[in-house]
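Fill in residues.
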């Protein structure tokens, strides 16, 4: 039975189904994708955006690549802000998100960005789909890094637009990007200037540190940038100090935004795992206190905030000389981009280090495991305080923060902090921990004029910053002991700064002389430093005398520059103003007009003389008049026209229309066209024949030349000395080749230079010859296999880019920029 049934069963077995063709497979895959997308969309629609039940990313209706990217980056559970903001954003709501520092806001906007584009099936041909704006370059780089991590399973391209490279280089890559992380100014520059790049298709806009981006410092850039974006986009705004300002919402045309503030009802505005204290220490003891603190915490990671780049430079340089025993770093907005990135990376990687910084890293930067945040200079407001202390105690880690307050600042600041629900306690420094570095600083400043110069700049910029602070309940310049402060920096005298009553930013910036001088020049020594009036019977030490010396050349020139730099570049204004986060107050157009009316009539602008000549002074009013009249004259000049001259010397416009009647008289247009074409092609043919003839002659000539040289060499004669009369006169019959060669060479110019010139031009011809005309034509009419080759080359380049992204961590800006062009896809 069995033997009978076997063949029957074999024959009844159905033949294997035919393998699906390539197209069929593609269609199947596409169908599968569409089905998956529909399922995903259904999950999103069915998910209640206001639900608070989701605890992990897996509970959210996320696309497979996003979920895989999050998992691969070890993000599993949701933070509060993520649990509440992501569902709303997935439902296309505009979101205003507020949550404490270090609570995971970055993922709260990056996840919706990736999924929005995924569900829209965004491809490289759709252009820019998402724009993420950050107030600082450092933060933009960090956001980009997180995006790269969690977006690794997506196929979107993403780039960083933060400046630091030429606009052109950045521009070349922009049009290929789906997601851009940028700073406002640079992005605007591209939208204004880069041909072929636009944001017309933008789906989603994100503002990280939104309150900062919307404030006065960025107002013009952001408003202009928004003009380039479509109104139909979705907008997400996040910050630890989010504002609901109606004007901001209107500026961004938000549509019924959802306000998500997860810690609104919390008892404190700062993380609960952050311990906060303040120390009352007079301004002139702040550096002593800081030094003592650093010495007592050598096995820690510390960030020290100071109010300006100049302060940072001075404290860093002087502490470096003092060698406290911990690696020191410094960061401010005037450093080169590459240095900023390098320092950020070094501090990130460091276990124990002390970073002196301005507010350029106050917001958003996620340095791991920072133990202490020290605020030597009081922050301008409570929001800045919150962001600064937020650099520690991030996510679930603990941290400590200390604020140094001058007695004059204590009452006002502590009150403000309490109002803002910030729990802060007063502590005292133990006497045995105190260290005075005043003498060391004085010695250092004496020996090192550059350090003294830095100290003076730091002093001026500090005093200036205090003067410009809006909050006069906290910042009281006249209650500060500036002489003692100056001495504590190691300066031999107090740099004089006089502020007129009611004087504001613009006057100080543009008229440093009036703002700075102590009234009469005679009150200053060569350093611009007021000599303390000596009491009659005062005993003066050797050091006192040395400090009073006026021949400290370096400093004199430095200080002259400082005082005379008319555009406010001196006088402690350049660094601070250019920093991203240090704009204290900016005047709007009306205020500027108002100020210019108030400006003194005899205001002068000092311009440095060229070539080491004396500076010269230009009356600004006269200069303005001259400029105005020049401008007026330009109006009457009109535009220049290019003319060409005929044989008789008559001028004609470059493109002159022929007289139509004359043209008609010459015959029918079609015939004229034919005649013209025939005539021109005959001319071309003729020229072609001539060219070929010329080419043939040149080749012949060169061949002969080469042969002659070879013959000379064979005959043991140096060809370059062919015209030497000392050469033996050969009998042509005796040695035909050699004779011919010599004759020929003698006919060449005797001048060595000429001959070299000819050889060089010969080489050029050779090179031209090497590429026959047909080869040249090939460049223009590229055939298929060449095209294919190029495409495969391009593909392999792309692939190389991907591998690089996955395998190599970016270390330099170049790396990052290379990444910027790559795909997120792993
Ligand atoms: N779901 C999560 N699981 C684990 N770690 C997370 C999660 N979300 C964020 N983090 C980590 O928490 C830290 C802080 O996150 P993030 O930088 O996004 O905070 P933030 O709210 O933007 O802070 P800031 O207000 O200072 O900008 C980061 O190191 C991040 O990797």
């Amino acid at each position: 039975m069995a033997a009978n049934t076997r063949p029957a069963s074999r024959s009844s077995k159905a033949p294997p189904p035919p393998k699906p063709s390539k197209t069929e497979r593609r269609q199947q895959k596409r169908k599968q994708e569409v089905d998956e997308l529909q399922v995903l969309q259904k999950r999103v629609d069915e998910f209640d955006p206001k639900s608070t039940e989701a605890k992990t990313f897996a509970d959210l209706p996320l696309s497979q690549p996003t979920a895989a990217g999050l998992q691969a980056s070890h993000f599993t559970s949701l933070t509060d802000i993520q649990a509440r903001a992501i569902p709303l954003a997935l439902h296309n709501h505009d979101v205003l998100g507020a949550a404490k520092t270090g609570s995971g806001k970055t993922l709260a906007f990056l996840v919706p960005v990736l999924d929005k584009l995924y569900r829209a099936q965004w491809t490289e041909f759709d252009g820019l789909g998402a724009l993420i704006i950050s107030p600082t370059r450092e933060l933009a780089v960090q956001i980009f890094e997180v995006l790269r991590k969690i977006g690794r399973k997506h196929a979107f391209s993403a780039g960083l637009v933060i400046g630091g490279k030429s606009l052109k280089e950045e521009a070349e890559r922009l049009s290929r990007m789906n997601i851009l992380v940028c700073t406002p100014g640079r992005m605007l520059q591209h939208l204004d200037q880069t041909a072929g790049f636009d944001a017309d298709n933008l789906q989603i806009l994100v503002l990280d540190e939104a309150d900062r981006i919307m404030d006065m410092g960025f107002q013009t850039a952001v408003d202009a940038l928004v003009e380039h974006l479509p109104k139909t986009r979705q907008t997400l705004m996040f910050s630890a100090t989010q504002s609901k300002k109606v004007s901001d919402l209107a500026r961004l045309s938000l549509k019924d935004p959802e306000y998500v503030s997860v810690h609104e009802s919390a008892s404190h505005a700062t993380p609960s795992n952050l311990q906060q204290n303040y120390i009352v220490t007079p301004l002139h003891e702040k550096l002593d206190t800081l030094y003592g603190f650093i010495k007592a915490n050598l096995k820690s990671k510390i960030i020290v905030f100071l109010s300006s780049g100049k302060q940072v430079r001075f404290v860093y340089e002087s502490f470096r000389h003092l060698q406290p025993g911990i690696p020191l770093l410094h960061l401010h907005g005037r450093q080169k981009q590459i240095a900023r990135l390098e320092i950020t990376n070094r501090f990130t990687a460091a276990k124990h280090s002390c970073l002196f910084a301005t507010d350029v890293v106050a917001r958003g930067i996620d340095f791991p495991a920072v133990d202490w945040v020290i605020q030597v200079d009081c922050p301008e407001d409570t929001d800045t305080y919150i962001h600064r202390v937020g650099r520690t105690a991030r996510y679930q880690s603990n941290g400590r923060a200390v604020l140094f307050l001058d007695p004059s600042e204590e009452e006002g600041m502590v009150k403000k902090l309490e109002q803002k629900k910030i729990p802060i306690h007063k502590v005292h420094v133990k006497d045995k921990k105190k260290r005075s570095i005043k003498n060391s600083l004085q010695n250092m400043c004496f020996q090192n004029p550059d350090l003294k110069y830095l100290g003076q700049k730091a002093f001026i910029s500090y005093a200036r910053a205090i003067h410009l602070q809006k909050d006069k309940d906290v910042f009281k310049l006249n209650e500060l002991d500036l002489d003692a402060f100056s001495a504590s920096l190691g300066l031999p005298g107090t740099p004089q700064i006089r502020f007129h009553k009611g004087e504001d930013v613009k006057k100080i910036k543009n008229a440093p002389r009036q703002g700075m001088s102590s009234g009469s020049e005679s009150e200053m020594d060569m350093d611009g430093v007021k000599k303390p009036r000596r009491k009659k019977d005062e005993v003066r030490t050797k050091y006192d005398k040395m400090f009073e010396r006026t021949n400290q050349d370096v400093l004199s020139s430095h200080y002259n520059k400082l005082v005379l730099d008319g555009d406010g570049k001196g006088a402690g204004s350049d660094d601070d103003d250019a920093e991203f986060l240090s704009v204290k107050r900016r005047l709007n157009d009306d205020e500027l007009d108002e100020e210019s009316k108030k400006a003194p009539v005899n205001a002068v602008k000092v311009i440095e003389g060229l070539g080491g000549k004396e500076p010269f002074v230009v009356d600004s009013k006269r200069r303005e008049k001259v400029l105005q009249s020049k401008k007026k004259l330009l109006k009457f000049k009109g535009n220049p026209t290019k003319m060409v001259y005929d044989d008789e010397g008559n001028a004609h416009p470059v493109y002159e229309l022929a007289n139509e009647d004359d043209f008609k008289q010459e015959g029918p247009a079609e015939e004229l066209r034919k005649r013209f074409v025939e005539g021109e092609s005959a001319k071309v043919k003729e020229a072609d024949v001539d060219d070929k003839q010329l080419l043939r002659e040149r080749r012949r000539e060169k061949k002969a030349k080469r042969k002659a040289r070879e013959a000379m060499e064979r005959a043991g004669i140096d060809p370059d000395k062919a015209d030497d009369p000392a050469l033996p006169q050969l009998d042509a019959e005796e040695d035909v080749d050699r004779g011919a060669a010599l004759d020929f060479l003698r006919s060449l110019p005797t001048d060595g230079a000429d001959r070299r010139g000819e050889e060089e031009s010969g080489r050029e011809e050779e090179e031209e010859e090497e590429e026959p005309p047909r080869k040249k034509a090939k460049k223009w009419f590229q055939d298929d296999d060449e095209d294919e080759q190029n495409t495969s080359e391009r593909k392999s380049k792309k692939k190389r880019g991907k591998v690089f992204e996955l395998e190599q961590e970016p270390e330099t800006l170049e790396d990052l920029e290379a990444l910027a062009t790559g795909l997120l896809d792993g």
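The pocket of adenosine-5'-triphosphate is lined by residues 75, 77-79, 82, 99, 101-107, 240, 364, 366, 390, 394-395 (CB under 6 Å).
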